[in-house]
Amino acid sequence: MWRKKTRRYPPARLIKLSAVVIILLSFFLFITGKFSPFIIKKIGIEKNNILCADDNQLINVSNLLERNLLFPHFKEVEKNLKEKFICIRNIDFSLSFSNEVKIKVYGRLPVASFLLLQNKEASASSALENIATPSAQQAGAAYLIDKEGVVFAKDIGAVNLPNIFLYDRTVSLGKRAVGNSENSLKILDGTKKLGLDIKISGIFDDILIIFSYPRVVFKLDGKIDMQLASLQLILTEAKINLRELEFIDLRFDKPLVRFAPKKK
């Protein structure tokens, strides 16, 4: 009786076939992220000046655990973290072949504190040299602001920063300072480089007053660089002539300057 012959593969061919199946299966698991060596099992957090989030919060919002190690979509993760925690300025990611992702988070550094006045106390028509220096008792909320103009945290008084008093209902967490608020930061940075005390200042309408000695007045919607150049010239000439300055108003083409009486 005729019997159907069983087809037998040579050993070498069988080995090749098995290898192809294993490779295809491994490739499928790799692509779908089911192969454990390519699954994120651990997240390490390193924080620098982060005031608004702890390690667990950062890990949870990143949503990186159990993701494919080779397709982690870091740009998406960075976007989500920055939207959730406004105190974050930069994020660095690094991969490890031990199923770990390390996240270095860098916080925003405050350059000033915005103290919101509860009442609008002065206007451009006031005698500017007679406006009293504002105090924290006159202010309500206080916020930290960085060099990019981002209001990123409440000021709890832990850092000694320049205080900018203002009456502005548009200032709030997560927003970027614009207009007069933004220009005030540029002016304070330039004034500090000239050696003046910028610890206390105030925004009144379109005017910035620095309550230093001498008291200095700037026009916020004017040419800031030109005003700073005029201030530098005035300070230099006063130093050369051994004159003590009391008041400088830079709002005009020809600044108003008042000197202290000469000592007898």
TrEMBL record:
<protein>
    <recommendedName>
        <fullName>POTRA domain-containing protein</fullName>
    </recommendedName>
</protein>
<feature type="transmembrane region" description="Helical">
    <location>
        <begin position="12"/>
        <end position="31"/>
    </location>
</feature>
<keyword id="KW-0812">Transmembrane</keyword>
<keyword id="KW-1133">Transmembrane helix</keyword>
<keyword id="KW-0472">Membrane</keyword>
